[in-house]
Amino acid sequence: MSKLKPNAWVLIASLAFAGPASAQQAAAPEAVPDKMPFATPYGAPISLERAQSAISAAIAEAGRRGWAENVAVVDSGANLVAFARMDGAQLASIAIAEHKARASAGFRRPTKAFEDGVQKSDNKSLLTLDGVIASRGGIPLIEDGKLIGAIGCSGGINLQDEATCMAGAATINK
Questions:
Q1: Radius of gyration (C-alpha) of the chain in whole angstroms
Q2: Per-residue pLDDT for 97 more than 90?
Q3: Which CATH number fits the domain 48-169, given the four candidates 3.30.450.150, 3.40.50.360, 3.40.50.1240, 2.40.160.20?
Q4: How do beta strands 146-154 and 70-75 pair?
Q5: Is the separation of the CB atoms in 46 and 144 below 8 Å?
Q6: Which of 24, 37, 129, 167 has its CB surrounded by the most CB atoms within 10 Å?
């Protein structure tokens, strides 16, 4: 053992003393909720006319504020029903707007829930779920207590996207 290099001795000593000190405490068990969160039942798909009305309201809000947004509406099955790209809206946000709408419909929640889960709760496992986008700007469209679709907006920062979507969603979510 005397032929070990000084670095090896340091490694052996650090492993010997670090073992007990670095042992992790068992995590406290998490409370299991009694009810399913985000369990809004799926309803009949949104009509083209209603989807276009939501898009028009979203575009009016974005235009009033001087934002160039892409806006997508999907039905209760997360299939694209209508889409609009405002003049000057960035091209990369076309797919993002649709992704936000699909995630919101498929998971029956605003995409802000994923953003909060990752940023505030440090729940990085959310990022492993197919179809998740952890960026606000996807809002479910609820009519008579049932999810009929979702609206997704992209082109600005997350707060702008969310504000644009909220204006569109307000035509349905009363």
A1: 23
A2: yes
A3: 3.30.450.150
A4: antiparallel
A5: no
A6: 167
